[in-house]
Design goal:
By secondary structure, the chain is an alpha+beta fold. It contains 13 helices and 10 strands. It is globular.
């Protein structure tokens, strides 16, 4: 294992950087849905039609900024790795024919081709920084629209495969770490109130996925009837409220349940340092506890980047890429524990 690559070089950059409100918000994401005028939506297009759409889009991509990949040309493991890095959606990796992705060289932006829409432009920034992400997404959109003829209606806005995306085609989201709210069972009530504000809560990889490691995605439900800036403001308001509630509970746990929370944090750290076999779900749950301990000042802040890096590298596809082999589930659990032990041992 000592000859293995430095895991920090394999981690998506925004995952290990700390941005505004970084104790609770891991990242902000902007996604724009766009379609070519006069073409069938991907769900109704033949493979040859999707190939033609992909070819047209490929010609419009800025080659200096993006690397373009045709999904059927890369392995299922590599596609899953990109999904774990939030560069691809779970929906697109299962049926790669006629689909593609353009990935920015800094890995902070990607353009999915022929997912639900012809184009899904997304940008990600660390912490709660929606404005920076929107500026970048709009810049990519402007470049593409200067070359491609996009489907647009003067009254409805951008036309999309799903009615909920019509209008701006904008999905604004933040990935948040909520161990305090989860631990005290206050999360369901808070998320219910957030949904009444027009927001939806999803799992770690978006729609139809589960929350792992106490990580949740909060995003807007519709994209019509308001400006992009208003959608950003709405989400920022909801997320700021969630941040406040999470911080209040963390402080209460530290003040009123000091021995309990210290035991939980250091017990989790101890298991991670000694376990010989560990599943993805258990590892993410324990790493979540350790991250909470860091944010509460119980564990040295210097450990935070490595913990955040481990929260990505121990996922199945990343782990196999790191090890350089396709691994059966039992072996994955063994090597996952080994990687965690070695990385934590290096940090003392």
């Amino acid at each position: 294992m000592s000859e293995k690559k430095n895991i920090m070089k394999l981690i998506t950059p925004w995952m290990i950087e700390s941005g505004p409100e970084g104790d609770v918000v891991l990242s902000s994401r902007i996604r724009l849905a766009r379609n070519l005028e006069g073409r069938s939506f991907p769900a109704h297009a033949s493979v040859s039609e999707k190939n033609a759409i992909r070819d047209d889009i490929k010609k419009a991509i800025n080659k200096k900024e993006f690397n373009f990949l045709e999904l059927e040309d890369i392995s299922p493991l590599e596609r899953e790795n990109m999904m774990e890095s939030h560069l691809l959606s779970p929906q697109i990796i299962a049926s790669p024919e006629g689909r593609g992705v353009a990935i920015a060289k800094d890995q902070r932006s990607s353009i999915m081709i022929n997912e639900e829409d012809h184009l899904r432009i997304q940008t990600i920034t660390p912490g709660l920084d929606l404005k920076t992400a929107l500026i970048k997404a709009n810049s990519i959109d402007d470049d593409l629209e200067s070359i491609l003829n996009l489907a647009f209606d003067e009254q409805l806005g951008y036309l999309t495969a799903w009615p909920t995306n019509i209008g701006t085609g904008l999905r604004v989201s933040a990935m948040v770490h909520l161990p305090g709210l989860t631990l005290t069972n206050n999360l369901p009530q808070l998320l219910s109130s957030v949904s009444q504000l027009g927001m939806v809560v999803r799992g770690i990889y978006g729609e139809g996925t589960e929350a792992l490691g106490n990580l949740y995605q909060i995003s807007n439900q519709r994209s019509l009837g308001r400006t992009e800036e208003e959608f950003l403001s709405d989400l920022a308001t909801a997320v700021t409220h969630i941040i406040g509630e999470e911080r209040k509970i963390r402080e209460a746990l530290k003040q009123k349940s000091q021995y309990f929370i210290e035991d939980k944090v250091f017990r989790s750290l101890g298991i991670l340092k000694e376990a010989r076999v560990i599943s993805t779900n258990e590892a993410l749950a324990l790493l979540s506890d350790v991250r909470l301990g860091i944010d509460l000042g119980l564990i040295n802040q210097d450990l935070k980047p490595i913990v955040q890096g481990l929260m990505q590298i121990i996922r199945p596809a990343h782990l196999q890429k790191y090890m350089g082999n396709t691994l059966e589930p039992e072996l994955r659990d063994y090597y996952r524990a080994l990687v965690i032990r070695e990385e934590l041992a290096r940090e003392g």
